[in-house]
Structure formats: C-alpha cells, structure tokens
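@channel sequence for tomorrow's demo:
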Amino acid sequence: MKKIILIMFVGHLLVQFTQAEGPASSRKKIEFFEKLYMIKIRNVLPLGKYDDPDKFYSEIAKQAGIPQMAIDAVEEKFDWKPNKNFFLTTMVKGGWDADYWGVMVVRAPIAITKAKTAEEKKKLLQTMEMKFVAIKYDGTFLSQKRKRESR
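structure tokens (generated this afternoon):
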C-alpha cells in the first residue's frame, strides 16, 4: 500500500515538475516550489532575508514532505524505524545549484538525551548511524552509484 501511495505521489510530482516552467521557475523563489509541489508555502521569507540559505530550503522541504520521504526510504531499505531505543531525525540541504534535496537521516539512541556524563554521551554516539538520501525535485531518488559517476 505504501508503495502505491509513493508511486502516485511521485507521478503527481513528475507532472508538476514538467509544468513548473515560466515566471515561477526560479529555484530561489518560493513560488517555484509552490507550483512544483502544488502547495501553499507558509511562514517562509524570501531567500535574501536568511543569513543561511539552507534555512530557506529546509523550511520549504519540510512543508513539501521531503524529510518524511527520506525517512520512509531508510525505513524501507535499512529497516530503520523509531522504537523504544532509537529515534530518527533529519537535516535537509537544498539550493538553486542542485537538482535534488540532500537529506541526512540520523538514527540516534534515545538514551543520549538522558546521558549525564560526557563519557556516557561519547559511548552512545558510537551507536549513532547516518544515511544520506538524495531526492530529486521530481520526487525520485538519486542513487549513490549514479551520484558518484557524475563527480
């Protein structure tokens, strides 16, 4: 069922991506992403108002559901799921100079939030894992093999 919903979502994004031409096609503008993902982006300032462009793109990605897509991908591929021992969190990178969202998915032990000493935190950090997920603007995933070949 999840795969069917994901396929429908990706197909929808493909249609929108091909229609995202014209005055709103600048990746530096909120309107580009509103048209691309067919959503109204709220509480995001124009790019020039941010000291760090990643904050602009991260806020847009959150509203477009990009972090959840990355979490779903690592859940499917690596069987990472939040549970009583681990939580998942994401960091999003994006920009006008790339055709994809870069999402770092971090799987960290819940105990790290309660660790009292630096030694205890250091030991728990050794169990933390990270996976990088590249999601093209059209909603498809960029494979690591393909990404390496383009370097």
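heads up for whoever presents: Residues 2-19 form the longest helix (18 residues).
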